[in-house]
Design a protein that fits this description.
This protein is of the alpha/beta class. It is built from nine helices and seven strands, in the order βαβααββααββαααβα. The strands form two sheets. A five-stranded parallel beta sheet has the order 2-5-1-6-7. A two-stranded antiparallel ribbon has the order 3-4. A hairpin with a 2-residue loop joins strand 3 and strand 4. Helix 2 crosses helix 5 and helix 6 packs across helix 7. The longest helix has 24 residues. It starts with 5 loop residues before the first strand and ends in a 15-residue tail after the last helix. The model has no long low-confidence stretch (mean pLDDT about 90).
Length: about 210
């Protein structure tokens, strides 16, 4: 009989270091599901491709697959277009997450969900971890990567709920304003406390 895993959501605003934290969990042998990767898989689905090219043209494809950067440029700050995209991707993504959960034999199943609260998914987990870093620290990290302009980074930050609104809703806050070594220690401390996390009444992803 399949076990009923304890579901742990890992979230954090852009540049917070949540992906690094998730990679540390993976290094310790835990399974971490990336909601963004699952969403990309659903976006690549032939039916999804058909719908988005019908609306936006084949210019949004690169190598026959949806180009996330081009699509982001279309939907950012355009609610109607974002709602259209979400209507295609979200139900499929939530269904895939539920399928992973239903078929898991893990005791603990971790999910990296950048927009966990923005998507209203806070009631789908037994435990929620927020990886937090100050805005200036996050901005410095993102500028160092050189992948986006300062204006693009600021716009993405402004589109997310501020951590002050998320902290009261989380079970644990990981402070990532310091070194990687400090983050590793907090990850180890968290792992050592996993045994104290219990199942709670929650909604399914696809409810």
């Amino acid at each position: 009989m399949l076990t009923d895993p304890i579901l742990i959501g890992i979230t954090g605003n852009i540049g917070s270091g949540k992906s690094l934290f998730c990679n540390l969990l993976r290094e310790h042998g835990y399974t971490v599901i990336s909601a963004d990767e699952i969403a990309q898989q659903q976006l690549n689905d032939p039916d999804s491709v058909r719908q988005i090219t019908k609306r936006w043209g084949k210019e949004v494809l690169r190598g026959g697959k949806p180009d996330r950067k081009k699509i982001a440029g279309i939907v950012f700050n355009r609610k109607a277009e974002l709602d259209f995209l979400n209507s295609i991707v979200h139900p499929k993504t939530l269904g895939a997450l539920q399928s992973i959960t239903d078929n898991s034999t893990e005791k603990y199943l971790f999910f990296e969900v950048p927009l966990l609260f923005e998507a209203g998914m806070q009631h789908c987990f037994d435990y929620i971890v927020l990886v937090h870093a100050n805005r200036d620290k996050r901005l410095t990290r993102l500028l160092k990567s050189g992948r986006e302009t300062p204006a693009d980074i600021q716009a993405r930050m402004n589109a997310q709920i501020d951590d002050l609104g998320k902290i009261p809703l989380c079970d644990l806050v990981i402070d990532n304003n310091g070194s990687t070594g400090a983050l590793k220690k907090q990850c180890l401390d968290f792992i050592q406390r996993l045994g104290g996390i219990k199942h709670k009444s929650k909604l399914s992803f696809s409810s």
